[in-house]
Design brief:
The protein is of the alpha/beta class. The chain has two domains: 272 residues, Aminopeptidase (3-Layer(aba) Sandwich), CATH 3.40.630.10; 110 residues, Alpha-Beta Plaits, CATH 3.30.70.360. The protein is built from ten helices and 19 strands. It has a six-stranded mixed β-sheet, with helices on both faces. Strands 4-5-19-18-8 form a five-stranded mixed β-sheet. A four-stranded antiparallel β-sheet has the order 12-14-10-15, covered by helices on one side. Helix 2 runs antiparallel to helix 4 and helix 8 packs across helix 10. The protein is elongated, with a radius of gyration of 24 Å. It starts with a helix and ends with a helix.
Length: 387
């Protein structure tokens, strides 16, 4: 297989400028999650790029305010289960955050909104396919699933259900999320629930009519303490009250208090357990006359480290070492991703196969340029090594 791999590596080396050009193009096509038209424009652009390589593609509407999901398949007629590339096209940065034409390269690093999270991973996916096409690869179908609303947890959309359905029946998956700077591969992630809790009390003057008021902030203070007590570090469950708003002026008993809560957990079973416990806190009243409403804003299940995920990781790591790439250690992460749905669909997937770098979701976000080419070579090698 050595001669075929050398052809693939040469193809990627010869196309390095094209890879950088596409990376620049799609990073400069800003695609903030809340700017649907821009996310959809990027999705349309990428659809055309993958169709040029022979994919049969669809753009799927998932919600009125959410970016579309791009799904495509190459070689549907081929025998065997498909290999899946997955990830997302939206970013966390409103357009203009970095000025005009934000993509830039300084030394060994590339900068720009989504350069790491995760437009570099999309470029790797496309050029891995192009490299395989160059040697007439036809062993298995190849499928892409790129979401337009992952960064907002598919809030108000059917995005999660689409991924779950489209990922069924896959042989294996490469989730092209942020590559880790130490070359580790993610084999599991915590799930996340983002929820809002609202307490209503009774407003009154704090001096002239103190006893007529019912303090919503006081009621919420009791709830916050009880919520924070649900954290169980030994089992990986954490509760963090991240924002609080209440009252209007200091000399008025507040009738309203609102908090937003971040909940993280290790597995799907714990997801339901912690939901129930948060519900119990909301339902318990400390100050008679207050009312409480809790609602889930976003929800992402855990990406569980199943036996099949670990088996696929061991295989990929052995291939990496055998063909002269660096060893990839395994790592579990606290941030969530759509790898959870792919695993739930029964397809073993590894996460963080995109370009390597640091500081995603910050203005310091950067990616290592050479990892764009190295990862395309590595993934091509893994695919060629599948039995």
């Amino acid at each position: 297989m050595g001669s075929i791999l050398n052809q693939i590596y040469k193809y990627i080396d010869d196309k390095d400028e094209e890879m950088l050009t596409l990376w620049r193009e799609i990073v400069n096509m800003e695609s903030y999650s809340d700017e649907k038209e821009k996310v959809d424009l990027l999705a349309k652009t990428l659809k055309a790029k993958f169709e040029e390589e022979g994919f049969d593609c669809r753009l799927i509407d998932v919600g009125d305010k959410n970016g579309k999901t791009l799904v495509g398949i190459l070689g549907a007629e081929r025998k065997g289960k498909p290999i899946i590339f997955s990830g997302h096209m939206d970013t966390v940065f409103p357009s203009g955050t970095f000025g005009e034409s934000p993509f830039k390269i300084e030394g060994e690093k590339a900068y720009g909104p989504g350069v790491l999270d995760m437009k570099g991973g999309i470029v790797i996916s496309l050029f891995t396919v192009r490299a395989l096409n160059s040697i007439n690869y036809n062993e298995r179908p190849i499928k892409i699933i790129f979401s337009g609303d992952e960064e907002i947890g598919h809030k108000g959309s059917q995005g999660a259900e689409i991924i779950l359905e489209e990922a069924r029946g896959g042989l294996c998956g490469f989730n092209m999320e942020t590559g880790l700077i130490d070359n580790s591969i993610c084999v599991g992630r915590k799930g996340r629930i983002g929820c809002q809790i609202n307490v209503k009390g009774v407003e009154s003057h704090a001096g002239n009519d103190f006893t007529s008021g019912i303090n919503a902030i006081e009621e919420m203070a009791h709830k916050i303490i009880n919520l924070q007590k649900l954290t169980k570090l030994e089992s990986g469950t954490t509760i963090s009250v991240g924002t609080i708003k209440g009252g209007t002026v200091s000399n008025s008993i507040p009738s309203q208090c609102d908090i937003e809560v971040d909940i993280r957990f290790e597995n799907i079973k714990e997801m339901e357990n912690i939901k129930n416990k948060v519900g119990e806190v909301c339902n318990k009243t400390f100050l008679e006359g207050t009312t409480t409403e809790g609602k889930i804003l976003t929800s992402m299940p855990a990406y569980e480290t199943t036996a099949d995920v670990l088996k696929f990781y061991v295989f990929c790591n052995e291939v990496s070492k055998k063909y002269g790439f660096d060893e990839m250690k395994s790592k579990r992460l606290g941030g969530s991703s759509d790898a959870s749905y792919i695993t739930m669909a029964g397809t073993p997937v590894l996460c963080s196969f995109g370009v390597r770098g640091q500081w995603n979701h910050t203005t310091k976000e950067y990616a290592l340029v050479d990892s764009l080419f190295d990862r395309a070579k590595l993934i091509s090698t893994i695919i060629m090594s599948l039995e």
